[in-house]
Amino acid sequence: METLLLTPNEENLLLAANALQDGQLVGLPTETVYGLGADALNEAAVRAIFAAKGRPADNPLIVHVPSIQAAESLCHIDDRSRRVMEYFCPGPLTLLLPKKPIVPEVVNAGLPSVAIRIPSHPVARRLLELSGVPVAAPSANTSGKPSPTTAQHVMDDLCGKLHSIIDGGCCQVGLESTVIDMTREVPTVLRPGGITPDMLLSVLDEVAVADSVLRPLKEGEKALSPGMLYKHYAPKGTLTLIKGSEQAVQQLMKKLYAEALQQQKTVQLFAFSEHLPAYEGCNVKCIGSLKEPETVARQLFAVLRQADAEGVDVLFSEVLPAKGVGLAVMNRLSRAAGFRTIDADREG
Ligand code: TXA
Ligand code: MG
Questions:
Q1: Which residues, at least 6 apart from 56, have a Cβ–Cβ distance to it below 8 Å?
Q2: Is the C or the N end of the chain the one with fewer CB within 10 Å?
Q3: Tens digits of residue pLDDT in 93-103
Q4: 53 shares its domain with 155
């Protein structure tokens, strides 16, 4: 199939909306990452999403709707969840809510809950309105690869496997939505994102964060969110995170860089803008500002993809505190590194 790359004008959005109604797959921009959308109530269309991504069938999808009212036909919303939705939606938040029978089991892998998101991106919103169907959409990457934050990333991974991709430019947030399980007594963040636990506390008395957010699952441990089971966000090269005091980190990064060069490897360093001068003469990529984790969130996936495109074998990255949006950044960075971390203070 020839995949159309569409600019987001009304005519093209109608074309894409018709494709969705027809059971076809459409790549759509959201404020977090690009999604691979299909009519959530059309089982065959939903199966096609799993096939296109190479995604395991036991990893459930998020259903996108334009409003709380549209969500109500798919799930049960109690007062507490409604408060959260009224405050944060539309926005980069996904709520796990008790599912109604209308949602086919293929969407949510047979679980009792369904993941609901009301995106704020104007193109996503217009597409949802025009199609009039709830849209199941995982991130529009090949399973295991970093999520796409541009239309070109979607094209690179999935060209020929979907009807069209709507080009809405670069994604504002850059990391996938915060996933909060509202079916638990204490609402629990399963995947951190742009809406932080602190922000959620402005409308909830209590918020828990799944402790597997910053560590690998233990042997035999059940994943609260099936997505946490799978290798994620991984570049082709081997990424290692270097933590510790600023000076020790910079010294070790440069030492490891020199060693890799000696072994004839293509090596790259990921560093914050504030520290770039320390790595003069090295192949270094700026991943944003240490002081503004949002800037790191916005470019992390693009930088990981770029390293792949440049054929980088070995990568070393600085880290930032796992606070605020930094928690989401470290969740993705840790997974991209397969949790390989060196403490520069101990190493030195
Ligand atoms: O920002 C986002 O959330 C993007 C855009 C396109 O909306 N979507 C996205 O979808 O990241 P995906 O499929 O890549 O990630 C969804 C995550 C997975 O980890 C999945 O396991 C989890 O949400 N999930 C979905 N439904 C669930 C459920 N009923 N119970 C537990 N986890 C669920
Ligand atoms: Mg994904």
A1: 50, 143, 226, 230
A2: N
A3: 999 999 999 99
A4: yes
Could you tell me if the CB of 176 is within 6 A of ligand 1?
Answer: yes
Residue nearest to atom 6 of ligand 1 (CA): 35
Which atom of ligand 1 lies nearest, measured to the CA of 28?
6
Residue 209 lies in a domain: yes
Residue among 61, 62, 74 whose CB has most ligand 1 atoms within 8 A, to mutate: 62
125, part of any domain: yes
Burial of 133 (0-12, 13-18, 19+ CB in 10 A): buried
How high is the pLDDT of residue 183?
Answer: 98
> Measured from the CA of 193, which atom of ligand 1 is nearest?
1
Q: Is the pLDDT of residue 287 over 90?
A: yes
Let me know whether 45 and 118 are in one domain: yes
User: For position 48, which CATH number holds?
Assistant: 3.90.870.10
Structural domains of the chain, count: 2
**Residues 6 or more apart from 101 whose CB is under 8 A from it?**
none
More confident residue, 226 or 187: 187
State if residue 33 touches ligand 1 by the CB under 6 angstroms criterion: yes
Which residue type sits at 96?
A: L
Q: Is residue 219 part of a domain?
A: no
| pLDDT at position 348 over 70 | no
Is the CB–ligand 1 distance for residue 32 below 6 Å? yes
Q: Are 234 and 336 in contact (CB under 8 A)?
A: yes
- Distance CA(151)–CA(130), nearest Å, equals 21
Residue-number span of the structural domain to which 17 is assigned: 4-214
In sequence order, the β-bridge partners of residue 314 are 238, 267
